[in-house]
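Bug report (template v2)

What were you trying to do?
Predict the complex of my protein with manganese (II) ion.

What happened?
Run completed; filing so the output is reviewed.

Input:
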Amino acid sequence: MKKKSPPAKAENADLERFGRLAEYNRRRRFDVTPEPAGKLRSVKNQALEFVVQKHRASRLHYDFRIEHDGVMLSWAVPKGPSLDPAARRLAMQTEDHPIEYNRFEGVIPEGEYGAGTVMVWDHGTWEPEVEDVGRALAKGDLKFALHGQKLTGSWVLVRTRPRQWLLIKHRDPSASSEDVTAAKPNSAVSRRTLAAIARSAGASAKQLAQAEEADRFSAAGQPAE
Ligand code: MN
């Protein structure tokens, strides 16, 4: 069997132009996936964006992303965010995403990285509750406020190991014992279920069945920790 040749130097150099989004671009084939290609955006003065994307890939999880330095810092939260300050939700840091990704709702085709249905579950703006976000990230303790449709108030991300963090709601008036992922399962931008998104984006039969299963799972609520 012929060994796959390594990518040409020129190709690598081309990817490196994208700096912090090189990893995002490396994992995706933009002639196949409907996801946006990663381009760095200049740092702006407007409010910082956040998004939570509900993603039925090999497993259902919630991708929590906050804008910082022209990209979306990203964490995969298997159980999704919780409004209960006693819940510590595992959040695995993943590759930085482009800011354009915040508007992506659709289906990543079978065989591609992250294949499955993606929903914009919540979105809005965020504010650091620390002076220096870079330093807080380096320290592994970032306090912040969310201004979303479902997630609001004060939160913290705490790193416990390399790339492994906990997402925790602070005790404040927006804290609640309500299971927000079960109470508000649908898209914040289109009100659609995962199955409705899958259907309109031409998902495969298998992907549609997985989206339907994830909708039923969300509606049933998750077992308490
Ligand atoms: Mn994901």
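What did the reviewer find?
The helical segments are 9-16, 22-26, 133-139, 180-183, 194-200, 205-220. Residues 9-220 form one domain.
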